[in-house]
Amino acid sequence: MEARINYIGTSVGSKLVKHINGASKAIADSSLPAATLELVKIRASQINGCAYCLDMHTKDAAQAGETPLRLNLVAAWREATVFTAAERAALELTEQGTRLADASTGVPDEVWANAAEHYDEEQLAALISMIALINAYNRLNVITQLPAGDYHPGQWS
User: Which of 63, 72, 98, 127 sits at a 20 to 30 Å CA gap from 108?
Assistant: First the structure.
């Protein structure tokens, strides 16, 4: 399988990805735990069916020390006992923020309140920014059918 287009090989695509990567770096430099950021990227990518992002973020998370058990249970986080209350709040916010079209009122107040119980304003800003960014990446990769399986941890560092 080949991608429909070499998106980052275009002038527009390379400029956009440069800016998105800069935004991603700002989020990574926040006080939001790196493990939480990876869980968010993985869960949104599962929902959106982005194989490339799943390949990338599961490998990066494993390289950073995430356990296979937790990686395998992200899709079933509600029933899994391996996630903290804060991580569960982040995963719920991720799902609601990714599935905006499924709810006419957007993210429910109780989901936001739960996240706000576990994260301060800076961390919430990082969390919602990562949800938005990973959804953008997912859409770019799904639309272009970027194939998965060949990513190596740190490849884009």
Answer: 72
